[in-house]
Specification:
Elements lengths: L2 E4 L1 H9 L12 E3 L2 H6 L5 H11 L8 H13 L6 H14 L4 E4 L3 H9 L3 E3 L1 H10 L4 H13 L6 H16 L5
Length: 177
Amino acid sequence: MTRIFVDATTLIALGTIGELALLTNFSGDLVVVPRVQHEVTTEPAQTNLSRFISRYDIAQTDPHIASFREQSMKTLGEKTPNGDVDIIAAVLGHTADTQSVGVVSDDRRVRTVARGLGATVTGTIGVVVRAVSTGVSAQTGRDIIDRIDSNGLHMTGSLRQQAYTLIDDAADSPPES
């Protein structure tokens, strides 16, 4: 089963508006490592994340992180471990074992490195699009995008329009299982 590591950027965006459950539309085991959880310091995102982890029994550990942390720090040019380091360490470990791994992040550096190492990568908008592709209405998806935009993850007009287009395309396709 694919492990999907969620970064603080998406947890903050979805947690602020109370929509973390959208992450459960992915096929795979969600993981929120402790260093990432500690980066979610704003309310109500922090409280919603704690509840989400408990309610959905979200994994918080991965055996690859400790073994690949040093390599990850070098790859990212970091001097101390942080959430990004642990996510990339997990990606390094899973891809070294030829296991599929996913990353959900809006951080450009994390996305670029994870994709380059062989992970499947998406962001907050991708989470909403996935929810629409699994049965959430297009209007609800657009409303979620608007709420995200007004509560912290500010989008350009063109990015918002691209999100709407992706949502409409997902709504027009047969639901994914």
